[in-house]
Amino acid sequence: MSATQSDIGLIGLGVMGTSLALNMESHGFKVSVHNRTSKQIDDLVNNRSINGGLKGFEDLNDFVVSIKKPRKIMLMVVAGKVVDDYINKLTPLIEEDDIIIDAGNSHYPDSIRRTKELEAQGFKFIGLGVSGGEEGALKGPSMMPGGSFSAWPEVRDIFQSISAKVDDNVPCCDWIGEDGSGHFVKMVHNGIEYGDMQLICEAYQIMKDVLKMSNDEMHEVFKKWNEGELSSYLIEITANILKYKEKDGTYLVDNILDTAGEKGTGKWTAAVALELGSSLTLIGEAVFARYLSSLKDQRVVASKQLNGPVVNFSGDKEKALNDLHDALYASKIVSYAQGYTLLTNAAKQFNWNLNYGGIALMWRGGCIIRSVFLTKINDAYKNNPEINNLLLDPFFKNVINNSQKGWRQIITVAITNGIPIPAMTSSLSYFDGYRSEKLPANLLQAQRDYFGAHTYERLDGNKGEFFHTDWIKSD
Description:
By secondary structure, this protein is of the alpha/beta class. Helix content is 54%, strand content 8%. It is built from 20 helices and ten strands. It has helices at residues 15-26, 38-48, 60-65, 81-90, 108-120, 133-139, 152-162, 181-210, 215-225, 233-243, 265-276, 281-293, 296-303, 317-350, 356-362, 374-383, 394-416, 422-434, 441-452, 471-474, and strands at 8-11, 31-34, 54-56, 72-75, 99-102, 124-131, 142-147, 165-166, 170-171, 177-178. It has an eight-stranded mixed sheet with strand order 3-2-1-4-5-6-7-10, with helices on both faces. The chain has a two-stranded antiparallel ribbon with strand order 8-9. The chain is globular and about 75 Å long. The protein starts with 7 loop residues before the first strand and ends with a helix. The relative contact order is 0.09.
């Protein structure tokens, strides 16, 4: 009977679930599929199956029985309660050592909890971060699995076969670590994605509103950038977006309402940075920029009442574009430095053993933030596995130092002309703060001690020795 059974089961035939099922089938795996409604099952199995490797089941028990042991059951459903509901439906039907895989955008604390709960019942759990959207899921995503390590040998062949490949057929998938680490790494990936997108949008606005460049001119700049050190998926699609015209000859991007949506992963990243005491200013500003964009009606009213400077740029446009390139590159480095600091802090907090360089390699293909830049992060951790901050790596330090003049100059141009660039300015402020031997936190500690007796340490005291002053009496 096992010869006719499926290699894996998949529940949830939305866009991503359907694409992953077809991806697995195209790599020679037999896949059982189940969905809450039967229409999607019938459409996938009868109309989209490539070679008959997909089997559809309306009954959940029949679905479970159709899968080889130890069963591997992937959930591609809405994060939260729906995942728990399906887990509760499955646990009475599956057996010891069977594996439940949550491949949705679940919050990492849920994956920590589910790993413990399912392992206590004799089952195994994988929280699988999947990046790449519909195209990636179909043709090869970046996959970030974490959870029950003993489950990894059972799923490795499937996961690495269907994932994106780079260089000499190296899969963009490897084991991340314990319990919720896979979904945590995916969350940080999405946070960095927020930052990258905001930085590109700020560069676009400077080109459009300050340098007065046409869409065709901007397309050419992004196309050129994509051929160099800024080469990435997001730069590539930005170039493509800028040249896309509608039937009436207008550029589509100019007809899109300037309010940005978000699904929560960027907010999760910023929130956990606050919880772990990790400075993640650029990603935080990227999230806040989306919130500000949503106030369209208020912004229209404010634009007629609040005055700003008249845009007046009379400098060298080519030099400004070079400066903008350097600012984008330097800010991107800061974004990754902050993201990796968050990963390091999380690993300490949750006792995860993360392969930081390996994570960068998994992001080189399939995912939204894929870029040539990521190989340099792996090199940094190869050179120094204990590095505290990517800014201290020789390569990144050299780039930052060489980019610094243009970085500062284009930010000055933008601010002088009233262009909001929260991600670029916050990245520069982080850099200046991180490189500062002394910050004004001495005054801040004095203020805290003055109004709240929170104490302070002294330069001439011992580390960990705290003092309090009766400031009013001293007056």
